[in-house]
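thread: overnight batch results

M.L. [08:02]
morning all. the overnight job finished for the chain we discussed friday. pasting input first so we're all looking at the same thing
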Amino acid sequence: MQKFRFSPSSLNLFLDCPRCFWLDKVKGIKRPRGIFPSLPGGMDLVIKKYFDSYREKNGMPPEINGKIEGELFGDMAVLEKWRNWRASNLCYEDKKYNALLTGALDDCLVNDGHYIPLDYKTRGSKLTDDPRKYYQNQLDCYNLMLESSGYKTKGFAYLLYYWPEQVSENGTVRFHVEPIKIETNMDSAKKVVRDAAVLLISPTPEPNANCEYCNLVSSRNKEKI
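M.L. [08:03]
and the structure it wrote out:
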């Protein structure tokens, strides 16, 4: 029986459009993608180095000190593995559906022997939408992977948002930093893994009326008629 390998991001695609997910995993047909901006990736690396500098001192960045629960996870060797999706040993396996969930973390906090995922997010302006709309499944999956790998969690995770507020001379940019605590549900993540595995052994899903990619293909097909 085929083994299905998922990541939190691939399961986000499943939740967004089952047909696009099925075409990606079964047929190798991926959604078209444009030019990916390099700034978010660069910010991610800079933020990690910044947090690691405080980790080495057993400290916490002052802008979030007292605003979040826990301390920075101190084992850099383990954290470096967790940050690399190729090397990460964090996983959840559903043996009944032959599915494996793996993924990488940005960072992690520890509180009373419990582990709390911390994920960095950069954006161009102040938050206007509820972040759970976009990241609930991702955080559910993080806690599920931690628990399944032997690390007790506290039932929540943090998103740490950065957005620019002001530019001053010498290229200095001041960012607003906003931690958002999100309650997590591991049972929900387990169901998503199971439903995704079931879909992949099913016939091709119908086009999703709410998916711009499905609609684009449908419109092109109609033009050919």
